[in-house]
Amino acid sequence: EYEGGRNSEGQRHGFGKARLPNGDTYEGQYEHGFRSGHGTYRFKNGALYTGNYLQNKKHGKGVFFYPDGSKYAGDWVHDQRQGYGEYLYANGDTYTGEWAYNKRHGQGTYVYKETGSKYVGCWVNGTQNGPAELIHLNHRFKGRFLNGKPLGRGKFIFDIGCEQHGEYIQPVQEKEEEEEDEPPLPVEPIWKVSEITKLTPWSPHDEE
Predict the structure, then answer these.
(1) Class of domain 1-79
(2) How far is CA 118 from CA 93, 95, 136, in A?
(3) Exposed, middle or buried: residue 153 (CB in 10 Å: 0-12, 13-18, 19+)?
(4) In which residue ranges is the amino acid composition biased (Basic and acidic residues) (predicted)?
(5) What is the model's pLDDT at position 175?
């Protein structure tokens, strides 16, 4: 069903309202038969998008409300989260920063609601990767991350005014003579302290 403007060729053009065969509805701008310009799209499952379209795809600035209560507000390119945007997750965590192909990618800040901790730094394909700072309530860690875990040289900076330098080392997986059915548990990197100093200006970028 459609009610609204049409052009001389009979294509939907201008402002219109449509109900799609799957039960979704759209209200907004059309150009030459396509959703283009500003509009609001309501999904049957409760999700809702309000923002810009280009030839039926979310493109430009827009806000998407997901059925689980999460929400993304920011840039879209061809139906994907791309550019700069803020995502509020269902558990209350938030990510503000750069996106590419629907994933956190580039520089961004992730805030963990439960602990109040904050990751500020690089992301690659949705994962914490590269130079970053992990900020906790009374101390922070400055270093590099690989696949979501700290690895290599870094330092902990304590609010009382001192620093602990060291490195995260990836332990070697011990082979055990047991059943092969169970996959080995991933081994967490281990922190090895080298020295404790007063505050210094070292940053993970220094070594690049």
Answers:
(1) mainly beta
(2) 10, 10, 7
(3) middle
(4) 1-12
(5) 60
